[in-house]
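Subgroup meeting minutes
Present: P.N., E.W., G.H.
Scribe: E.W.

1. P.N. recapped why we're keeping a running log of single-chain structure predictions: easier to compare across weeks, and new members can see raw inputs and outputs side by side.
2. G.H. added today's entry (137 aa).
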Amino acid sequence: MDSNKKHNVSNIKGKDTSIELILRHALYKEGYRYRKNVKTLPGSPDIVLCKYKIAIFCDGDFFHGYDLTKTESLLKKNKDFWSNKIETNRKRDNKVDEELVSLGYIVLRYWEHEIKHDLDKVINDINLHVIQKEKAQ
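Output recorded in log:
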């Protein structure tokens, strides 16, 4: 990997992204209290509702491969690099999900476009999972 590409990739934020901030603000407004980027859990979930054992990830459309056909058509340079990177991210996401489920967590993943354009639906989905957890307790 050339130094320019390495520099660009290193500038990508892993915490406190715009979509995380949007979702965290909405959850707080709903009355939820959470922890963010919990390093003691597999994958360091973006948001954890500890009381309900719910781990939430805010996945960027590009980096987590929402629409691979569209993504691959956008790639002009370094197509192999980005295809491999996205595939690796997807495999890691699946492994992390399995590990969290084995620890008794509900894992929720929301796409960037869902958080930006349909936040009410995302919040409603989280509320439904919380209600299910409360009924099970």
